[in-house]
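Possible regression after last week's pipeline update?

I re-ran a chain I had predicted before the update to compare outputs. Posting the input and the new output here so someone can diff against the archived version. Not blocking, just want to make sure nothing changed silently.
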Amino acid sequence: MRLLFLLLLAANLGFFAWMRFLAPADPAVDRQPLTRELEPQKLRIVAARELARGPAAPPAKPRPAVSPPEPAPLACLEWGSFSPADASRAAQRLEPLALGPRLAQYRGEETASWWVHMPSQGSRAAASRKAGELKKLEIDDYFILQDAGPMRWALSLGVFSTEDAAKAHLQALRAKGVRTAVIGRRDTRVPKLWFQVRDVESSLRARLQGIARDFEGATLHECAQRG
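New output (post-update):
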């Protein structure tokens, strides 16, 4: 028995030596796996609780910024009121906007309680000379009163429904060089004109507001109901 044991031991040692040192390498077996690891420094031991949670969810992508919707166009804006002379000048300023059928003009009357004027000049000749001075200052919106009464041969420079509008007009005239004009009460019906612009988007409204600032006494607002 001892001899048989020794023979089996020798056979096993011989087989091990042959497999370890003499047998040809099996191409399917990598005998040096650690030397062929890719980036071994990135390997780490994962705890069981991490495996239970599963892979981490990728960070949420930021939502693209949503532009606020463009405000709906206003139905209508009204600009006025104007005397016939000022209405002609306002119409010229609106021409570059090419409003076409969106632009309408309305005529009516207003009760004017305040007016800017030059007192009576005493005669037709004196009133004509004063009118000539106004033309040199490039002021064309005036007329000479010829009706009998204390204001005959006075020069009217504008009539207004409010005192504030009259004061604003007087200030503009003084900036042009007019020195003798005054404000007074005068209740009378005068012809007036209004402009209406429909389908006004924000950019058009800004341009209209810029033009309106050059016309004292006229306001730009949402359209009034007209019968």
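Follow-up from reviewer: compared with the archived run. The mean pLDDT is 81. Marking as no regression found.
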